[in-house]
Amino acid sequence: MQVIETLAQGLKRELKVVIPAKDMEARMNERLAEVKDRVRINGFRPGKVPVAHLKKVYGKSIMADLVNEIVREKPTEILTERGEKSATQPEIAMTEDEAEANKILNAEADLEFTVAYEVIPKIELKDVSGIKVVREVVDIAEDEVNDQILRIAESARTYESKKGKAANGDRVTIDYLGKVDGVAFDGGKDEDAELVLGSNRFIPGFEEQLVGVKAGDEKTITVTFPADYPAANLAGKEATFDITVKDVAAAAPLEINDELATKLGLESADKLKEIVRGQIESQYGSVTRQKVKRQILDQLDELYQFETPERLVDAEFENIWRQINTDLEQAGKTFADEETTEEEARAEYRKLAERRVRLGLVLSEIGEKAGVQVSDDEMQRSLFEQLRQFPGQEKQILDYFKNTPGAAASLRAPLFEEKVVDHLLSEISVTDKSVSKEELMADDEEADGKPATKKAPAKKKAAAKAEAAEGEEAAAPKKKAPAKKKAADESAE
Known about the structure:
Blueprint: E1 2-9, E2 12-19, H1 21-35, H2 51-82, E3 91-94, H3 98-105, E4 111-118, E5 132-138, H4 142-153, E6 159-161, E7 171-180, E8 183-196, E9 218-224, E10 238-251, H5 258-263, H6 269-303, H7 310-331, H8 342-370, H9 376-389, H10 394-403, H11 407-425, E11 429-435, H12 437-441, H13 444-447, H14 459-466, H15 487-492
Parallel strand pairs: 5-11
Antiparallel strand pairs: 1-2, 2-4, 3-4, 6-10, 7-8, 7-10, 9-10
Helix pairs in contact: 1-2, 4-6, 7-8, 8-11, 9-11
Subcellular location: Cytoplasm
EC number: 5.2.1.8
Keywords: Cell cycle, Cell division, Chaperone, Cytoplasm, Isomerase, Rotamase
């Protein structure tokens, strides 16, 4: 076998692989000898079929199998021998001339094919001990825990019917019928609907006009649907609602005690506080982690500058660009609305894609040298988390990971990345800084005192995704939209 390098430009490589016809014929004869004792051909005793006859009957099919095996396996072997890693699956090209292909299958011509690929650049790891990050930490006050508990407890709040007028915070039970231009519209009717005044659950102006009503009152109110209301036939339209008030109930006071904890399925108020505090700590911890990670990646980005494989950048850019256009479409906006142009946005996100690829390669090299591994148990837990997030779609998700090339890698990538970040945290200088929750949640640019710049739509989303430097895509089908409320609620809300 001959391997001739025909292109070595930057990271791009192209190899011409030639296997002489005599070598291919020798391999075919070996295969024929292997099957000689197994084949059954009329007119011949088992094991007595002449090789020449076997070659005539099975030669081309065996040669075709050999060609497929060589084309599938040899590129990997060749790259290993060359000490190279391909950034993506190498592209294989063979002759498309039917006559030439027949000659190869008949062992009358050499097997030739080309292998085109981009190499992953060799990365010489640098000392990271000079990297310094500030880890912002929030001290969680007891009042914040209690406020969060009370918000959670709203779902367990009880109401008692009262005499007199409804006030904000009271719950009214109503029947209503909505009309536009005097004609009832679909989804504009409901009976025994419960509405807490001041909850802003219904469209603007609806709840305010019910303040002061009493049980037994009948009232017609007029409201205007918002211009951006999802139902196009109602958006911006004035509507009337004929309302019958059936009950007015006052909210029972909420107290953080063992009784409330029991209603929420816990044994005590102390346990409830412990769980809520843990949830708040986890929320703040995620933001802290993201900010620390951003600092690490920004400093790695300054340390490492090298040519990135174009195909990886192209793929990453397409992922980002697809998301940007989806966000634009959902928002009903154009690039002009975001004070930019498509050309400027493309250039900006191309740089973002290059950064993500470069940092992904750096993190991969750091992790490999540090012996970072993702265990089967960690992969299973990650898969279970995917299943938990999409109830009712378990089979589709399992099928997706089983049948989709690269799906398992999309699970592994973020796990690997987080473990590499953990490794780096043990190697760099980390200083803790107590901050308020407002400071922690502040936008990075504002917190750093940097001037705001024009941003293409969803810039923050894309920038956040850039911190996931390996550029993994969503690993499971999109979550289904939640079941809609009753049509009447949907129209009035």
